[in-house]
Design brief:
The structure is a single chain. With about 210 residues, the protein is α+β, with helices and mostly antiparallel strands. The protein has 4 helices and 13 strands. The longest helix is centred in the last third of the chain and has 18 residues. The two termini are about 40 Å apart.
């Protein structure tokens, strides 16, 4: 478990900060520079407690390298913390590869959407409460948007006029695909639990202004 202590001007030594054991165990199970990723998350948490978390590792294959990408979502009482660490090529020719980390802290009041796409390969065999075979979790808070366009048409099948384009704008700040085939059913269940916790935390209570 990583423990970080520091001093606050005029207030003496602040309480030690550490990641919860369950999150540490997930980072170690993931196996991608767990202490490095843990430090990136710890700085972004800024001392807040973690109420729920999700760790997702993705491996991509380039023509000349295998690159790993780990994303950590951490839910605090006030924020959604998104941390991302991935492999980058060497900064100079012949040098060693580097890992680059980034984080973003999103107030829960700014989370606009939590979208879940479930995939069930054999729906006739589904039993109540069973997890999907694949889950895609997409969270939007307005920083990034995806625009999907397609040619517009009309009801006249013989019309060949140019009707321009139609489309939609979708919030797509972070999107994670979790597959039971690749990561196991436990990973899918963990993603479902996190999505439920985030949805509850980012939704205003009944009667509150939206």
């Amino acid at each position: 478990m990583w423990d970080r202590s520091g001093a606050t001007a005029g207030r003496g030594v602040q309480a030690p900060e550490e990641l919860p054991p369950a999150l540490v165990a997930e980072l170690e199970r993931c196996g991608y520079y767990p202490e490095l990723v843990g430090d990136v998350v710890l700085v972004a948490l800024a001392g807040e407690a973690v109420r729920a978390h999700l760790v997702h590792l993705e491996t991509t294959f380039d023509t000349d390298a295998v690159r790993r990408h780990v994303t950590v979502l951490a839910l605090t009482p006030t924020r959604l913390v998104v941390a991302h660490v991935d492999d980058h090529g060497p900064e100079a020719e012949g040098g060693a590869p580097v890992a680059v980390g980034s984080s973003e802290s999103v107030p829960l009041s700014s989370v606009r959407s939590v979208v879940l796409a479930h995939r069930f390969p054999a729906p006739e065999r589904h039993r109540r409460g069973g997890p999907p075979q694949e889950l895609t979790l997409t969270v939007g808070w307005g920083t990034l948007s995806r625009v999907d366009l397609e040619p517009a048409g009309c009801a006249d099948p013989d019309c060949d006029a140019d009707h321009g384009y139609t489309g939609s704008v979708t919030g797509d700040d972070v999107s994670l695909r979790i597959s039971a085939d690749a990561e196991g059913q436990d990973a899918v269940r963990a993603a479902l639990r996190f999505a439920r916790a985030l949805t509850a935390a980012s939704s205003p209570p009944p009667g509150a202004p939206g």
